[in-house]
Amino acid sequence: MKGLRTFLYELKYAFLQMKRHIMLCFSAISAIGITLLLIGSILIIGLHVNYFSNDVQKDLSIHVILNENIDDETAISSIQSEISKLKNVSKVEVSSKDDELELMIKEKGDAFKAYRGETNPLSNAFFVYVKNASSIRKTSAQIQKIDGVSSTAFGGDSVTSLVDMLNMIQKIGLGIVALLILLSLYLIYNTIRTTIDSRSEEIIIMRTVGATNGFISNPFIVEGIFIGLLGSIVPYLLVHFGYEKLYESLGGKLFTPMFALFKPSTISFQVGLSIILAGALIGGFASLFAARKYLKMRR
């Protein structure tokens, strides 16, 4: 019961302080709301960039053409085993000369059907899938040096440039999110610090009669959490309904079916929950830092 009474006291006191400094709190709520909206937008972009990047890398492969004289299963298996040992290789699929011809027919037309059977001039091959697309050029060069390999192809600079660009966007997004979180911490820190300064005499009296630092600082932490939660409401609603409208207007894809968008329910849950948690955590930690620093200075 004592713990419940203490909690109710902290809750009541936090609301009273917010009421007394309503304009200051409104300013902090507005500022953190804008910040959380930016964080939510960047998280949405980051989720899609990560998804697109993984999707591109998942289907990315090196087409390895073997020499014409590599025709028996033992030799093919030996080369396959050697390629599999390379650090960046995740999977090696055999593509027989017949499979290669069918791919050529599919890509270049029915005229190549005449080469089916004994007249097939193509060589056996592999499709090599890599773990890290950024190192695909290096892996391709390593495969090229293996005895029995005639040539390798992986899409050239366009593929590596796309992967590098997606990775760069992810890093920039993470950097911006980190800066925005620091800005939010600073805004709430200043709000709580101003509230504490206005109650300096009251805090001195409380310490004189034996109040602990925890008893004094907890209401401020609760206040910071509430400021963070209130600041997260509007960003959550904008992300929830805004993304839903965007998804419908784009037909669930960005330019091509290759870049399919996440369903609104997924974004609403993952990003929406992140916004609410971020608001509460930022508010709580900023208030904790402000209260502890003040009480440490006033010992």
From TrEMBL:
TM regions (residue ranges): 21-45, 168-189, 220-243, 267-291
Segments forming domain FtsX extracellular: 61-150
Family annotation (Gene3D superfamilies): 3.30.70.3040
Compartments where located: Cell membrane
Gene Ontology BP annotations: cell division
InterPro entries: ABC3_permease_C (IPR003838), FtsX (IPR004513), FtsX_ECD (IPR040690), FtsX_firmicutes-type (IPR058204)
Keywords assigned by UniProt, alphabetized: Cell cycle, Cell division, Cell membrane, Membrane, Transmembrane, Transmembrane helix
Protein's membrane topology: Multi-pass membrane protein
UniProt similarity note: Belongs to the ABC-4 integral membrane protein family. FtsX subfamily.
PANTHER family cross-referenced by the UniProt entry: CELL DIVISION PROTEIN FTSX (PTHR47755:SF1)
Protein name from the UniProt record: Cell division protein FtsX
Organism: Holdemanella porci
